[in-house]
Amino acid sequence: NAGVTQTPKFRILKIGQSMTLQCTQDMNHNYMYWYRQDPGMGLKLIYYSVGAGITDKGEVPNGYNVSRSTTEDFPLRLELAAPSQTSVYFCASSATGALSYGYTFGSGTRLTVV
Amino acid sequence: GEDVEQSLFLSVREGDSSVINCTYTDSSSTYLYWYKQEPGAGLQLLTYIFSNMDMKQDQRLTVLLNKKDKHLSLRIADTQTGDSAIYFCAEVGNTDKLIFGTGTRLQVFP
Asked: CB of B85 within 8 A of CB of B36?
């Protein structure tokens, strides 16, 4: 029972580099989300998806892109990394949106941009 | 706009009760949640309460909801060192997505 799997767990990027944070879930959930967590700031929604082929911006989408070609996968792309993107990134999924019994979270990716 | 507020830190002695408080702004929230985050891990759903309830109890956990004041609290009885974590309150916003608070770091000392 893998749930939501995120890779990598840690990454250091140089300013201007690009990378993709991977997220996959095996629960056949339609809804998937990307959050970033900064100290004392809680979780901020970056992007979300309500199903394969459908994505939409959250609260803090600038500097990020996503795609949802399958139900299982929801990768997050950083094109030109900036120090402000140093954060912990969490992927989450749910069966029917927030009105189901909350979200299932991955264990996170800690990203440092130097 | 939607906002969820929590105090950042709480320190309690092992065996005492912990009370973590949360205020929210969206009076139409139908569900309110408490999540627990242990060091280096993702968030785990701890408990939730429907907006038509005032209280929910689950073993050592008691959730109290005051809709008039838009105040939610989580009480942990007989707090243990294993309860040390960050606790997040969350409400369902008007866009059917979870809005999280800043998190309260609970430290339990012997």
From this structure: yes
Residue of B nearest to A38 (CA): B102
Helix, strand, coil distribution of chain B in percent, nearest 5: 5, 55, 40
CB of A33 closer than 8 Å to CB of A93 = yes
**Chain B CB within 8 Å of residue A39 CB:** no
CB < 8 Å to A104, chain B: 45
Contact B17, B80 (CB under 8 A): no
For chain B, say whether A60 makes contact (Cβ under 8 Å): no
Q: Which helix (H) or strand (E) holds A25?
A: strand A19-25
Structure-token match 């608070």, residue found: B101
What pLDDT was estimated at residue B2? 65
**In chain B, whose CA is at the least distance from the CA of A110?**
B40
- The answer to whether residues B17 and B101 touch, using CB atoms and an 8 Å cutoff, is no
- Residue A1, pLDDT > 90, answer no
B21-39 average pLDDT score: 88
